[in-house]
Amino acid sequence: MTASTPVAFEDPQYRDAVVDLLGAIAYGEISAFERLAEDAKLAPSLEDKVAIVSMATAEFGHVAALNGRLTQLGVDPFEAMAPFREPIDRFHEYTAPADWYEGLIKAYVGDGMANDFYREIAAYLDPETRDLVVAALEDAGHSAFVVDRVRAAIAADPRLGGRLALWGRRLMGEALTQAQRVAADRDALSALLAGGVDRPGLDLAAIGRMFTRITERHAARMSELGLDS
Question: Are 104 and 151 in contact, with CB atoms under 8 Å apart?
């Protein structure tokens, strides 16, 4: 660590929680990059291909800052990411899109839910780490492209809306399951949410409200897409 490292990192449990969180987000960004680059092959036009590749590039662009912070904490970034490779890969395996539009929904809804979960946890971090996490989760306006394409497709074929609404609900279920599993399996993250002598935490009711907020934001995203949640 350096002289600029916040005092909170003197608590080894807090440091472990931050390492876990940054590792999870970093691997999530790499995985999103890979998936979006693959989805670009399904793009119906060159304009769409460029837009989805731009989204992929934005995801990958966040990795360097996250890895830099992990290195600053004296941690190998790849070791920090390793515990999250299997659960994140499993989520993507279970939610592989069947076509271009399912891929768009996943990029907007699935990634949005994961980002909401990480933002909720970031509220319990030191300001420097919190700002880094929030910056890594910004979409730089790329999601507007998804909303435009999905709404136009549903207007052209209203039957598509029913199928995509079902797909969105499936993504919500899988994303919530993954988030709950990660929070439960990683002791440091669980301890971070529970709080400590010098840090506020969440009781079971507050954790329930956290997941309710995530679900409500999911419903808002689905509404923006013109879909029932």
Answer: no
